[in-house]
Amino acid sequence: MTTARERPLGLDVLCLPMPGEPLAEPDPVFGTGPVAPKASAPVARVAADDSDRAFYRWMIGHHLTFGVWRMLADVLADAGRTGGLSEAGTARAAWWYDCYSALLLYAGSCTPEVYARSIRPRMAATHPAFSGLWARDHEWVAGLLSTLSLPRDGVLKRALKRNRLVHMTVAQMLVPGGASLFKGHGGRAANGVTDAERDLFDEFFLVHREAVTQAGFTAAMLTRLGAVRDDLAADPIDARADVFALLPTDLPGMVDELIAVVGEPLAAEAPIGVALP
After folding, report:
1. What residues pair up with 207 in beta bridges, in sequence order?
2. pTM for the full model?
3. Burial (CB count within 10 angstroms: exposed 0-12, middle 13-18, buried 19+), residue 275
4. 20, 265, 7, 225: which is closest to 137 by C-alpha?
5. Through-space distance between the first and last CA atoms of the chain, rounded to whole angstroms
6. Distance CA 146, CA 118 (A)
7. Are 85 and 72 in contact (CB under 8 A)?
8. DSSP collapsed to 3 states, the chain
9. Are residues 52 and 46 in contact, defined by beta-carbon separation less than 8 angstroms?
10. What is the full per-residue pLDDT of the chain (277 aa) written as tens digits?
């Protein structure tokens, strides 16, 4: 398990509702308005050892990915209610998938040696067959996506192909020539996922499921995005040019775009004087 002792420096538990549950309305008595985002969490860096930074990026990158999945799911769910994705909805869903791809590159930006030393053993200690298949938010996205008919060469299909390529590239970079924990322990996707496995995944990644307001969700995302922006400015990721070429823009640019888009609801509602990252 990821315990408080192992929690990366400055990274709080991420509170999210269950997939499919809407963000809560502010309490009319106690919740009078949006919550201003906290200052960016400090970035964990150790001069002589990249292990702490790698674990930090793995965890905060996944937190942001879970938030992106939620916002992507909102777009796909709207399409299900209205009978299909509009042109604007398709473009927005494709953009969210590209954000997911960018966060994959950020989260998995360490060397294979550091991954084998700092990240993989922690997941294996949680469960020998620990797997991303247990991510309930992505499972929800995949279910929504399966109900839609997408043009073969449309913008969303192309974003999905980029995402699969990024995912395979990151996996190959982190575990060159090796098998995932899941496959290495005989796991089969066809066997399905249990609630216990979904809960283990949440517990490892410091995710707590509860009612969350729009303002609270936005603030949590902006706090983490600000920290990632600061991290990239201080320690740019050194990766092959062909890997970054998979993104529609550079990684810092994708983070800046995310900050602008995620901050839209809070910017519209925040009292004068509230500073966003």
Report:
1. 14
2. 0.86
3. exposed
4. 20
5. 31
6. 35
7. no
8. CCCCCCCCCCCCCEEECCCCCCCECCCCCCCCCCCCCCCCCCCCCCCCCCHHHHHHHHHHHHHHHHHHHHHHHHHHHHHHHHCCCCHHHHHHHHHHHHHHHHHHHHHCCCCHHHHHHHHHHHHHHHCCCCCHHHCHHHHHHHHHHHCCCCCCCCHHHHHHHHHHHHHHHHHHHHCCCCCCHHHHCCCCHHHCCCHHHHHHHHHHCCEEECCCEHHHHHHHHHHHHHHHHHHHHHCCCCCCHHHHCCCCCCHHHHHHHHHHHHCHHHHHHCCCCCCCC
9. yes
10. 565 446 776 789 999 999 999 998 775 554 444 444 444 444 444 444 688 899 999 999 999 999 999 999 999 998 878 778 889 999 999 999 999 999 999 999 999 999 999 999 999 999 999 999 999 999 999 999 998 888 888 999 999 999 999 999 999 999 988 777 867 666 665 578 999 999 999 999 999 999 999 999 999 999 999 999 999 999 998 777 778 888 888 999 999 999 999 998 654 443 333 333 3
And the tokens for 161? 């192909």
- The owner of tokens 């004087």 is 273
